[in-house]
Write a structure and sequence with these properties.
By secondary structure, this protein is an alpha+beta fold. It is built from 10 helices and 10 strands.
C-alpha cells in the first residue's frame, strides 16, 4: 500500500506575505506547540510564555491596523492562522481568537487617543486579553446581565461577577460589559479594565471536560474603579459593541473547529494506513474509507464556509448570517469528525496515549462558546424569516 501520510492543508492565500506567514505559524506549531501539547493539557498548564512568543512574532494582532501594532491581514488570512494554531493545540488557537475578540471593542469603537494609548501593548506588546460578557445568570440572554457600573465623578465603579471567562485570572486586560442605565439592551456600556485593577479577582478555574490548559473562571469586580477615559464607545452602546464583536468572534471559533477536525482526520489517516488487520491496512476496508471520505468532505465544506464569510467581512459587506452558519456547521463538523476519529482508532482512540480522545473532548466546547449552536440557528432563522412574534 503506498504511503498516504497526511499532508499540510493546501491553502489558497492571497499574497506571498500570507504564504510566508502560514509557513512561520507551521514552524512555531511543530517546534513549540505540538511537542508539549498533550503533557501540558493533561497537567492543566497554560503556556503563557508561548503567547509572549506569538506576540513578538506579530500573531496576536493580525487583523488589526499596523499603525497600532497590528498585522494588517485580511480576515481570510487571520482565520487560517487560527486554524493552524488550533490544529496544533486548541488552547492556543482559541486563546488567540479570544484575545482578538477582547481587542475588537477598542480597535473598532475607541477614540483615537484611546487607540494610541492602549492598542500597541494589546496587539504587540505581550499583553493577553479577556472578554467579559456572560454572567452566572445571563449567558445566551446577554441583555439580562447584572454587573453594574456607577458613575463617580470622572470615574466608574464596577461591581458584579462575570462567568465562563477564558483567561480569567491571568489576563492583562478585560473588555467588560456592565450596566450603566436602564434594564435591557440599551443600558449596557463597555469598559477596558486593567487586569491588576484593585478589587478585581478571579475564582479558581472551572474543572472542565477538555481544554484543561486554558483557564476558564468567574471574574469578580468588587468596586473596581476605572476612569471614564477607559469607557469604550458611548454610554448604552455596550451590548451593540459586544454583539458586533461576536460576529467576528464566531468566525474565529469556526476556524478553530476546523483546525481540531483536521488534526483528528490526520490522526485517523495515520492510524488507518499503519494499522493492519486481516492481512492488510484497515484503510483498505470500504466502510472505513467511506468514513474518512465523509470526514474530509465535511472539513473542506466547513473551511469553504468560514472563508466565504471572511471574504464578505474583508469586503465590508454584511456577514452576520454567514458567520452564524460557519460557527454552526464547523463546530458540529468538529464534533462529528473527532467522534469518528476515536471510532477509527478503536480501543486506542479511547486512551490518552493517542490525541483523538482529547480532540473529541475539546470539540464539544466549540458547540457552546460564543453563542451555542441553538443560538446560531435562531440568528440564521431571523435573517431568513425575520424576528419571532412577541
Amino acid at each position: 500500500m503506498p504511503d498516504r501520510a497526511p499532508q499540510p492543508v493546501d491553502r489558497q492565500l492571497p499574497t506571498e506575505e500570507a504564504r510566508d506567514l502560514i509557513s512561520l505559524v507551521r514552524d512555531i506549531a511543530q517546534q513549540e506547540i505540538v511537542p508539549k501539547a498533550a503533557e501540558e493539557e493533561d497537567a492543566g498548564r497554560f503556556p503563557r510564555e508561548l503567547f509572549t512568543l506569538l506576540s513578538r512574532s506579530g500573531l496576536l494582532g493580525l487583523p488589526y491596523d499596523s499603525e497600532y501594532g497590528g498585522g494588517d491581514q485580511p480576515y481570510e488570512v487571520y482565520l487560517q492562522v487560527l486554524e493552524e494554531l488550533a490544529a496544533a493545540r486548541l488552547t492556543v488557537g482559541l486563546g488567540v481568537s479570544v484575545h482578538s475578540l477582547a481587542s475588537y471593542a477598542l480597535a473598532a469603537y475607541g477614540t483615537k487617543e484611546q487607540q494610541v494609548e492602549h492598542l500597541p501593548a494589546m496587539l504587540g506588546g505581550g499583553m493577553l486579553g479577556a472578554y467579559c460578557l456572560s454572567e452566572p445568570h445571563s449567558g445566551s440572554d446577554a441583555a439580562a446581565l447584572r454587573t453594574r457600573a456607577v458613575r463617580d465623578g470622572d470615574a466608574w465603579v464596577i461591581t458584579g461577577t462575570k462567568a465562563w471567562i477564558t483567561h480569567g485570572g491571568i489576563a492583562d486586560f478585560y473588555t467588560v460589559m456592565a450596566r450603566t442605565g436602564e434594564e435591557g439592551p440599551r443600558g449596557i456600556t463597555a469598559f477596558l479594565v486593567p487586569g491588576d485593577a484593585p478589587g478585581l479577582s478571579a475564582a479558581p478555574p472551572e474543572k472542565k471536560m477538555g481544554m484543561k490548559g486554558s483557564p476558564t473562571a468567574q471574574v469578580h469586580f468588587d468596586g473596581v474603579r476605572v476612569l471614564d477615559d477607559r469607557r469604550i464607545g458611548e454610554e448604552g452602546q455596550g451590548l451593540a459593541i459586544a454583539l458586533t464583536a461576536l460576529e467576528s468572534g464566531r468566525l474565529g471559533i469556526a476556524a478553530c473547529a476546523i483546525g481540531v477536525a483536521q488534526a483528528a482526520l490526520d490522526e485517523a489517516l495515520s492510524y488507518a494506513t499503519e494499522r493492519r488487520q486481516f492481512g492488510k491496512p484497515i484503510a483498505d476496508f470500504q466502510g472505513l474509507r467511506f468514513m474518512l471520505a465523509d470526514m474530509a468532505t465535511q472539513i473542506e465544506a466547513g473551511r469553504a464556509l468560514y472563508l466565504a464569510a471572511a471574504r464578505l467581512r474583508d469586503a465590508g459587506r454584511p456577514f452576520a448570517r454567514q458567520a452564524a452558519m460557519a460557527k454552526l456547521h464547523c463546530t458540529d463538523t468538529a464534533m462529528r469528525v473527532t467522534t469518528d476519529a476515536v471510532q477509527i482508532l478503536g480501543g486506542y482512540g479511547y486512551t490518552a496515549d493517542f490525541p483523538a480522545e482529547r480532540y473529541m473532548r475539546e470539540a464539544k466546547v466549540l458547540q457552546i462558546v460564543e453563542g451555542t449552536n441553538q443560538i446560531q440557528r435562531m440568528v440564521i432563522a431571523r435573517h431568513l424569516v425575520g424576528p419571532e412574534e412577541r
